Amino acid sequence: MNTCSASYGDWFILAVPLEGEWVISCLPPKSNNICTDWKTYQTAEAALAGAQEYVEQAAAAYALAEVVLELYEAGKIEAVGCHNLLRSLGYF
Q: Global pTM?
């Protein structure tokens, strides 16, 4: 099987051929959970570009989640609001 791998930031990216197209698996730093965008790409290069976009979006969501938790811990937002904001970012 011909695969293509790269790193982007602290993330490890693996592009794997699947039925004539390519899919990605992304491994975040300090994690054992593999992430994917559940899309297929025509080429390995397109898959790696898609993975970079996925990583950038995931990093932005993580940064926003940190701010939401800090606001909750500081008493600036209530638990329900915190939960709803985190859910909107893809957590839970």
A: 0.77
| Long-range Cβ contact pairs of 36-44 (< 8 A, separation 24 or more) | 41/15, 44/4, 44/15, 44/17
Q: DSSP 3-state assignment of 91?
A: coil
- pLDDT tens-digit readout, 27-52: 988 888 888 888 999 999 999 999 99
Distance CA 81, CA 34 (A): 28
- C-alpha–C-alpha distance, residues 56 and 54, integer Å: 5
Identify any residues that bridge with 7 across adjacent strands, giving them in sequence order. Answer: 12
What would the pLDDT profile of 61-74 be if each residue is shown by its tens digit?
999 999 999 999 99
Measure the CA–CA gap between 8 and 28, rounded to whole angstroms: 10
Give the whole-angstrom CA distance, residue 15 versus residue 67. Answer: 32
